[in-house]
Amino acid sequence: MSKLYIKKIQNKKRVKGFTITELLIGIAIVGILTAIAGPSLGQFIVQSRVDNEISELHRLILSARNSAINSGRNVTLCPLSGTSCSTNWQNELSVFINSDNTLANNNTFVSANEELIKVKGNISTGDTLQFSQNIIVFAPTGRLVAGGNGNFSYCPQDNNDLSRGVEISLSGRVYATSDTDNDGKDENRNGTEVSCN
Fold first, then answer.
1. In contact, 53 and 84? CB cutoff 8 Å
2. What is the DSSP letter of 45?
3. Long-range CB contacts (< 8 A, 24+ apart) of 48-54?
4. What transmembrane ranges does the database entry give (predicted)?
5. Out of 35-49, 81-95, 98-112, least confident range
6. Which residues pair with 94 in a beta bridge?
7. In 3D, which of 152, 154, 151 has the Cα closest to residue 49?
8. Domains of the chain
9. What is the pLDDT of residues 40-74, one digit of tens each?
């Protein structure tokens, strides 16, 4: 091989890569950008988690209502503890079709003759999910049978300003809360801010 060819190969090798100075400047720029964007990114992640939970809860309620209409039977949504409904809404939520349309058995799931439709997992550890009623039961008409109007409130840990909610009217309609007064906090349909106090 000629010496000229070897020099060209060596020159190409030197062109590739970074000098230590360029690398340190690049690391410094990335560090500065991370320091600036970090708090906003953390809030964005929490907001995304809250939005996902509210969307999933909204779909679960609509699924329960539609199942009641389609099956012609009462459908219950509640946090099951064994085979009975509990009041700890932060746990796994279950939707099941009741074997009969009496209110007496709507808070108990009997796997032998009742159908489990859908299950939503626990909420994130440290977050809070509250509901103003003990149980949600939809009639075949799509209306609520038990409990009346109800409000879900989802509050992320250490970020109460990002709290959101879902409301269920007696007619069975479902509404997600929104920021109606542009203060950065969601309000219920009656104008009160969503909170878990």
1. no
2. H
3. 49/124, 49/127, 49/156, 50/154, 50/156, 50/162, 50/163, 50/164, 51/164, 53/123, 53/124, 53/127, 53/129, 53/154, 54/154, 54/164, 54/165, 54/166, 54/176
4. 20-41
5. 98-112
6. 78, 119
7. 154
8. 43-193 (3.55.40.10)
9. 777 888 889 999 999 999 999 999 999 999 999 99
